[in-house]
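Hi support team,

I'm filing this because I wasn't sure whether my run with zinc ion finished correctly. The job status page said complete, but I'd like someone to confirm that the output block is well-formed before I use it downstream. Pasting the exact inputs I used:
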Amino acid sequence: MKLICIGRNYTDHIKELESEKPTDPVVFLKPDTSILLKKQPFFIPDFSDDVHHEVEVLVKIKKVGKYIDKKFAHKYYDEIGLGIDFTARDLQTQLKAKGLPWEKAKAFDGAAVIGEWLPKSNFKNIDDINFSLKKNGEVVQLSNTKLMLWKIDELIEYVSKYFTLKIGDIIFTGTPSGVGKVFANDELKGYIEDQELFSIKIK
Ligand code: ZN
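And here is everything the job wrote out:
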């Protein structure tokens, strides 16, 4: 399975990183080895001094598809989740400056947190879901899927032009503002509405 990640999908996050607003979604992949195993802490890798949390809404693909029209995209997922796209920001900044791929900064072991899944049927409208991240009990990221530049079904249409979607693939839909550095002993908890979907210790 693969993790398909979207960058720069919330205007407020584009502003905080002083990035340009993209004309198409920014897409990158993480391998399955980047998934943080359940109940394991996240170890800050020794090649970075500035690992950031990026909380993101996740979509789990349940059906094989290619060139999926956004009108039919809802048929390809039943579950919505929440995760973290851990990013070695110092390394990413260096790579971006040289025009090089981001993988070393985003696809390393443990860089993908995947929380519990919720049935899509729990939501009246998947384009209106509140989600948040608490760091040591304090809300640091808080947003709503209606603020995405490209909504979930549009992302499925877009990425499936390039990649065949397979059962179990997961789409990370991009982070809102409030990204920040993590330190040893931090505790990160992710919520959709009031429901806690993951709790991670940083080491
Ligand atoms: Zn991200």
